[in-house]
Amino acid sequence: MIVVVDYGVGNLGSIVNMFKKVGAKAVASSDPAVIKDAEKLILPGVGAFDAAMRKFHETGLVPVVGELVLEKKIPVLGLCVGLQLMTKGSEEGREAGLGWFV
């Protein structure tokens, strides 16, 4: 199952609907138990880097998603700001990113 990580940023409904349209099973969730069962992850995002990073930290999901991606090697696709969050940081912000790649 594909899980669209709901950390409070992005149009989750349109992403889930796109997967349904092509016949793939996808859900949007902020529940760590649901996220931990993902076969693939989508990290969405709309807006400013700093605001998105703060929201992601506020949910407490950063360690959960980080473990899945870095240790369990679950594939992840970042969309828009979701992709930017995977880097060390952004020229458009001051917050540190996840640092999964440069």
Rg, alpha carbons: 13 Å
Q: Largest sheet, if any?
A: 4 strands, parallel
Instruction: Please name the CATH architecture.
Output: 3-Layer(aba) Sandwich
**Strand order of the main beta sheet, please?**
2-1-3-4
Helix/strand structural class: alpha/beta
The count of helical stretches stands at 5
Percent helix range:
40-55%
What is the CATH homologous superfamily assignment? Class I glutamine amidotransferase (GATase) domain
Q: What is the first-to-last residue Cα distance?
A: 28 Å
Index terms:
alpha/beta; globular; 4-stranded parallel β-sheet
Spell out the blueprint of helices and strands:
Blueprint: E1 2-5, H1 12-21, E2 26-29, H2 32-36, E3 40-43, H3 49-59, H4 62-71, E4 76-78, H5 81-85
Parallel strand pairs: 1-2, 1-3, 3-4
Can you walk through the features of this model?
By secondary structure, the chain is α/β, with parallel strands linked by helices. It has five helices and four strands. The protein has helices at 12-21, 32-36, 49-59, 62-71, 81-85, and strands at residues 2-5, 26-29, 40-43, 76-78. A four-stranded parallel β-sheet has the order 2-1-3-4. Strand 1, helix 1 (12-21) and strand 2 (26-29) form a beta-alpha-beta unit. The longest helix has 11 residues, at 49-59.
Summarize the structure.
This protein is an alpha/beta fold and 102 residues long.
